[in-house]
Structure formats: structure tokens, C-alpha cells
Write a structure and sequence with these properties.
Elements (H helix, E strand, L loop, with lengths): L3 E10 L2 E11 L4 E5 L6 H9 L6 E6 L2 E2 L10 E4 L11 H11 L4 H14 L15 H13 L5 E5 L7 H18 L2 E6 L2 H7 L2 E6 L2 E6 L1 H6 L4 H6 L6 E8 L2 E4 L3 E4 L9 E6 L4 E4 L5 E10 L4 E7 L4 E6 L11 E6 L5 E4 L7
Parallel strand pairs: 3-8, 3-9, 6-7, 7-8
Antiparallel strand pairs: 1-2, 1-4, 4-5, 9-10, 11-12, 11-14, 12-13, 14-20, 15-19, 16-17, 16-19, 17-18
The structure holds adenosine-5'-triphosphate.
The site of adenosine-5'-triphosphate has 12 residues, from helix 1.
Length: 352
């Protein structure tokens, strides 16, 4: 059983606050993903949970007990790093035995744990190999195996896939999801890749500049982003943000005309509209924002059209791959589907 509580956790490095009051509850057996742009504090937060860094202030409780004075080795937490430093002179078996031996376990128990981890991670045929005789993905699995043999209650993974190529990355990602089911522990996974976060997580924690922007299930974040940061961070291609001025149900964009969006929240005059690429229809005239075609991307099953509104905003819209505007500068009309538009306060960026 492993339940984690972070309460107003802060961290300063030489006078700069890099974590600015983190409050977070992580339930037993959850797979939680910390996601956010480079430098937002994900690794720092993870290192604090592991006990590798001190907090400047705040509390971290594991199953209700403060971890303030508990050293890393006594927390029941194992961490797998981005650079999975294996010992080059030891074979896979020895590398995996290392952590478990440090715990003072006897030889038979260590062996039992290694065999179990090797089976789970399909490393059995590789136990006698040296790290240099392994592929990147295999090395990464050994690093995970080494953490597994310690039987941690909490598993921390810091960008474990970043050194792998795209194909391997999706393989190992599947393995990690399966591993989480098999071991039934709590897992915290750090990435700056929102696709990785969406596919793996029970719960995503979106971080930005040392703060949490939103916590929720992948679907929740996609369908009801709390603010413009989360709205544009989650989802690919990105949601377009459009500054509009409201009069009744009509939303006007400088140089592109106005569109009626019935059902919009009542408040706000200066509003930011959030429209995902599949929430636009491309029309020739009629209701919609006037725009100038810039270029298109063909992806096989669909295509994306990029167009510029009168105020300079670049908009992306999904379209059928077949007939689409071809000439840069061509005038098109982009009609947002009212029910799929997100509304944010024009100033604060918070969801209306
Ligand atoms: N030991 C340190 N001394 C001073 N500043 C540090 C130290 N470690 C991290 N920082 C700073 O703290 C901030 C957060 O870093 P952190 O590594 O937690 O970010 P991250 O979200 O994990 O980024 P990335 O995705 O690039 O790994 C950064 O601005 C970083 O430069």
C-alpha cells in the first residue's frame, strides 16, 4: 500500500523558487504522470519524493507518515533515471542483483527476485550479457529490472524513454503500462511528452513554472482544460487560441468578422476562444471567420490546413485529404462548431 501526500512543497535553488507550493494526493496503485515543459520542476519534485533532494519547506507524507527524516534507502521508493547508468563491467544479472543485495537480502531471495523481474521484462535470455552487448531498449529494461528487484512500493521513472527511438519508445511504453498492472504498485512517471502522458496515465499532473496547472484523467484534461496553458499543452496538433470580443452570442475577431456561438458561458466581454483542429469546418463563404490559406499538411487519413485570421492568429483545421485549398493567399471561411469551442477569460486565461 502506498499513498502519497504533498503539502505546499517548495524548493529554492540559490534564491530562485523552482517549486512554488505543490499540493498533490496520489492514491495507492495509481499511475500518475507529471508532464510539463522543460525546466518546470518535474525532476526536482520527483527527486524530493525519492529523498535525493531536500524540500525548502512543506511536507511529504507516505501512508500518512512524514518522510522528512527518512533517508532514501528506507522509503520503499525506487527510481529509474533518464540516463540508466548500468555498471559496464557487470553482466545483467549482477546489475540487477546490486540494489537487492544492498538491502541485505540473502542470496536465494535475491535470485528469486531477479528471475521474477527477468520474466516480467523478458530479460531471461540476456542475463549473462554485459550492458555494451544490449540495445538501448534492453538496457532500459535492465534499469527497470534493477529497480524492480528492490520490490519498491513506489516506482519513480524520470523520462525513461527519452534515449530510445520512436518504435522502441512505444514498445517500452507498453511494457511499462503492463508492468504497472503486474506489480500493482504506485508509479510516478515524468515526461515532457504529452502523448506519452495521455497514453499511460490514470492521472496527469500538468506542471508549469514550478506550479501545478491541473490534475485529472487524460480525458478530463482534453475535454475540460482549466486554462489556456493546459488547453494548448494537451492535444496534438495544438488547440488554437483566438482573441475575440463578445456582443451577445456573437464573437468578433479583428479583421475576420464575427461568428455566433450559441450556448457560450454568459460572462466576459474579452474572451479567448479555444478551438481544436477538428472543431473547425472549412467553408466557402457563409458563417465563419474569414481567413487566408497559408499551407496544408497531408497525413494520409486526414490533412491539416493552416490559415491566418485578420489579426494574424495562425489557425489549424483538420480537413478531408481530398479537396482542399491549394494556393497560398486564397480566402477561406473557418466555421467553429459551437458545441466544441472552449471559452477562457481574455485576461486570466482561466476557463469560463
Ligand atoms: N541543483 C540545481 N541547482 C540550481 N538550479 C537547479 C538545480 N536543479 C534544477 N535546477 C533548476 O530548477 C528548475 C527545474 O528543474 P527540473 O530539472 O526539475 O525541471 P524539469 O521539469 O525536470 O525539466 P526537464 O524536462 O528539462 O528535465 C530549472 O530551472 C533548473 O535549471
Amino acid at each position: 500500500m502506498a499513498q502519497l501526500s504533498l503539502r505546499d512543497v517548495r524548493k529554492n535553488f540559490k534564491g530562485t523558487e523552482v517549486l512554488r507550493g505543490i499540493d498533490l494526493e496520489i492514491g495507492d496503485r495509481e499511475l500518475v504522470v507529471f508532464v510539463g515543459p522543460s525546466g518546470c520542476g518535474k525532476s526536482t519534485l520527483l527527486r524530493m519524493i525519492a529523498g535525493l533532494d531536500d524540500m525548502t519547506s512543506g511536507e511529504f507524507l507516505l501512508n500518512g507518515a512524514s518522510m522528512r527524516d527518512v533517508p532514501p534507502s528506507r522509503r520503499g521508493i525506487a527510481m529509474v533515471f533518464q540516463s540508466y547508468a548500468l555498471y559496464p563491467h557487470m553482466d545483467v544479472y549482477e546489475n540487477m542483483a546490486f540494489g537487492a543485495r544492498l538491502q541485505g537480502l540473502d542470496k536465494d531471495e535475491v535470485d528469486r527476485r531477479i528471475q521474477e523481474a527477468a520474466r516480467m521484462l523478458r530479460l531471461e535470455p540476456l542475463l549473462k550479457r554485459k550492458p555494451r552487448e544490449l540495445s538501448g531498449g534492453q538496457r532500459q529494461r535492465v534499469a527497470i529490472g534493477r529497480a524492480l528487484t528492490r520490490k519498491p512500493e513506489v516506482f519513480l521513472l524520470d523520462e525513461p524513454l527519452s534515449n530510445l527511438d520512436a518504435a522502441l519508445r512505444s514498445d517500452v511504453r507498453l511494457e511499462i503500462a503492463k508492468l504497472h498492472e503486474d506489480i500493482g504498485g504506485t508509479m510516478i512517471y515524468v515526461t515532457h511528452d504529452q502523448v506519452e502522458a495521455m497514453t499511460l496515465a490514470d492521472k496527469i499532473v500538468v506542471m508549469n513554472a514550478g506550479r501545478i496547472e491541473q490534475v485529472g484523467a487524460p480525458r478530463e484534461l482534453y475535454e475540460r482544460p482549466a486554462n489556456t496553458f493546459v488547453a494548448t499543452f494537451i492535444g496534438s496538433p495544438r488547440m488554437t487560441l483566438i482573441r475575440a470580443t463578445r456582443k451577445g452570442d456573437a464573437f468578433a475577431v479583428a479583421g475576420s468578422g464575427a461568428v455566433e456561438l450559441p450556448g457560450a458561458p454568459a460572462s466576459g466581454t474579452e474572451v479567448t476562444l479555444g478551438v481544436r483542429p477538428d472543431a473547425f469546418e472549412i467553408a466557402q463563404g457563409g458563417q465563419g471567420f474569414g481567413a487566408e490559406f497559408v499551407y496544408s499538411e497531408y497525413l494520409g487519413n486526414d490533412a491539416y490546413v493552416y490559415a491566418r485570421l485578420g489579426d494574424g492568429t495562425l489557425v489549424s483545421a483538420r480537413t478531408d485529404p481530398a479537396p482542399r485549398p491549394e494556393r497560398p493567399g486564397e480566402r477561406i471561411t473557418l466555421r467553429p462548431i459551437a458545441a466544441a469551442v472552449h471559452f477562457f477569460d481574455g485576461e486570466s486565461g482561466q476557463r469560463l
